[in-house]
Amino acid sequence: MQKSTDERNGFGDSVKDNIIQRIPAARRVAGKGLCLLAAAFLALSQPVTVLATSTSQMEKEKREAQQKLDEANKKAKEAEAQRNAAQAQVSSLSDELTEILSEITLLEADIADKELQIQQAQQDYDQAKATEERQYEAMKKRIKYMYEKGDTEYLDILLKVESMADLLNKSEYITEIYNYDRRMLKEYQETKLQVQAYQEELENDKAEMEVMELEYKEQQSNLETTIAKKRREVANFDQQYAKAKEDAAAYANTIAKKNEQIRKAQEEARRKAQEEEARRQEEARRQQQASASRNSSSTSKPSTGPGSTTAKSSAPTKSSGGTAAGRAVADYGLQFVGNPYVYGGTSLTNGADCSGFVQSVYKNFGISLPRTSTEQRSAGVGVDYADAQPGDIICYAGHVGIYIGNGQIVHASTPSTGIKVGNATYRSILAVRRIIQ
């Protein structure tokens, strides 16, 4: 029984020990299960964290990419603006070069033409002076002869008459001699005065263009400074400058052809006017001769034709044609004829230059114009010279004037002539601008 009990006890202990031995294993298994459970939980929760982190990173990267894109677009726009500005600068520079070069070319051509005209006027004056001297010597001899002979010359002629018809013929002959002497002297004096006046006018024109040339030399100096600066900024400056030269030459050629057409039209109109005046003077001369033959003591008034000094010295005081508003501008400008020319001035009484004169005249009517002649060439609207009306601005190379009608302008000319009326086509016309419609 004891053995059985021991065995039972032994058996019991063995079972007990076995159970005891299994408890840690169970715990380990349970621990492992718990670990596996925790691992599974962690495994399930890990993608949510990673996904959230990835989304935030993507949003951040997206914002950074958008910012970089915006910056790139901004830089691109700035670069495009700089490129456009550079192109506009090059274009503006090219236009400026073309404008200045063409004006200088036309100005030089006008000066050369005026110099030729002055040379011709000088030759005409010298010939007239030689003729005057010869005629003066002849007149002195004749006066001396008449002084020495007294009135016996005419008396001898009259005493030798053989009939009443002969007396009438000799009387007419004496009258013809008398009228011839007077006519030849008068015609020569008028011719001399005409040539002198024409020469003076041409010299004044030349002086005016010399003033303009000096002005443009100064502008050209400023332009050369600009060129030196832009040459560093514009890569293809030499190409632009060469292009400007070509454009200037073409523009000057076009202007020259247009002005030649204007001159031809003016010359034709002048020729017809001269023919009409010559016809009128011839008719007046015949009437004068007829009157003189009836009364040898009668005298005639000096001619006041378009070539006489009297006609040249009388400047018009009123404009003609066009609109009332345009005539008002032109007539206002005519009030200041005879006032001084002052370079850089704008005073209509104390002195103005060409553009200052035009600016101040229009200022009186509440119209603001740019200061320089170049800028004024862009004011208003352009019209053809054939359609010019009083009040329009006639633009030349470095000069401007106000049209008053009948092919004439009022303008601040030179320091020697001041504000005066002159021929509108005395120089190459670049443009005609209408300020008042």
Would you kindly provide a written description of the structure presented here, covering whatever features stand out?
The chain has 8 helices and 8 strands, in the order ααααααββααββββββ. It has helices at 2-149, 152-159, 164-233, 237-294, 309-313, 324-334, 354-363, 373-376, and strands at residues 346-347, 351-352, 381-383, 393-396, 399-405, 408-414, 418-423, 431-434. It has a 6-stranded antiparallel β-sheet with strand order 3-8-4-5-6-7, with helices on both faces. Helix 1 runs antiparallel to helix 3 (164-233), helix 1 packs parallel to helix 4 (237-294) and helix 3 packs antiparallel against helix 4.
Query: Spans with pLDDT under 50 lasting ≥5 residues?
Result: 1-12, 33-45, 296-313
Structural class, please? Answer: alpha+beta
Order of helices and strands: HHHHHHEEHHEEEEEE
Average pLDDT reading: 76
Give Rg in angstroms: 51 Å
Distance between the termini: 150 Å
Strand proportion: 5-15%
Largest sheet: 6 strands, antiparallel
Number of strands: 8
What strand line-up does the widest sheet have?
3-8-4-5-6-7
Q: Could you say which overall geometry the principal axes of the C-alpha atoms support? A: elongated
Roughly what percent helix?
over 70%
Enumerate how many helices there are, as a single number: 8
Topology of helices and strands:
Elements: H1 2-149, H2 152-159, H3 164-233, H4 237-294, H5 309-313, H6 324-334, E1 346-347, E2 351-352, H7 354-363, H8 373-376, E3 381-383, E4 393-396, E5 399-405, E6 408-414, E7 418-423, E8 431-434
Antiparallel strand pairs: 1-2, 3-8, 4-5, 4-8, 5-6, 6-7
